[in-house]
Amino acid sequence: MDLKAPIKVYMKKKLIGVKPEDTVKRAGEIMAEFDIGSLVVVDDEGNVVGFLTKGDIIKRLVIPGLPNTTPVREIMTKDLVTVPSTATLGEVLDVLSKKGIKHVLIEEGGKIVGIFSISDLLEASRRKLETAIATE
Amino acid sequence: MDLKAPIKVYMKKKLIGVKPEDTVKRAGEIMAEFDIGSLVVVDDEGNVVGFLTKGDIIKRLVIPGLPNTTPVREIMTKDLVTVPSTATLGEVLDVLSKKGIKHVLIEEGGKIVGIFSISDLLEASRRKLETAIATE
């Protein structure tokens, strides 16, 4: 794990999304299917208009007891946290830690080009571990 | 981050728990309050009888549309994944990666003595980052 490497090396380029009018049930199904903790919310023009994490679902649907037919739009986070694609892994970890979040969107030229989550560190650590074992 | 260090260095010793008869709403409130993704489920004799993650809540409560008054016992994971406290961080990351899980219980002398989650890596990376900056 190289804290000085650009986040582009570690981010996932494939953004998995839902529409604002999709139900939270549908969003949960997609999270479960792809084993991910967050989704981008994309409107019909392809703009990222929100972000939805498992934590959002717990806080804004499960705790208040809303039905799973609630549209994603009603519980998504509209304030998007982004970092530029040129930021280093260390800088991004610092942003996550300071903001108390586990996922961040990566922006380049005004567009969202990827997502990085703490879980991606696991993959990076594992690769390092395998390399370490291979060179022992 | 030292992949050869024992997991004891990185685990959290404070286990945050709920009772099997607590509601999922209560479990969600505790997760939100402490900003954690999992809880241990502890019976009246102090035995860890289950484990509950945000993912369990999404999969087994939100998707099927159960009410938030459902007892934790009905949706918790009963198959506990544990690693010995002498396991190295690298070994633990490997277990998490292979099993596709993000949290694991740490066992010592037949007792659960801690918990490690991928998020704890963030704290470890941050400490390393701060050390790196301090020594630059």
Automatic annotation (TrEMBL), chains A, B:
Q: Which InterPro entries match?
A: CBS_dom (IPR000644), CBS_dom_sf (IPR046342), Diverse_CBS-Domain (IPR051257)
Tell me the keywords, alphabetical order: CBS domain
Query: DNA-binding: present as a keyword of the record?
Result: no
| Chain ranges of the CBS domain | 11-68, 76-131
Q: Does the record bear Flavoprotein in its keywords?
A: no
Question: Known PANTHER family for this protein?
Answer: CBS DOMAIN-CONTAINING PROTEIN, CBS DOMAIN-CONTAINING PROTEIN CBSX3, MITOCHONDRIAL
According to UniProt, the name of this protein is Inosine-5-monophosphate dehydrogenase
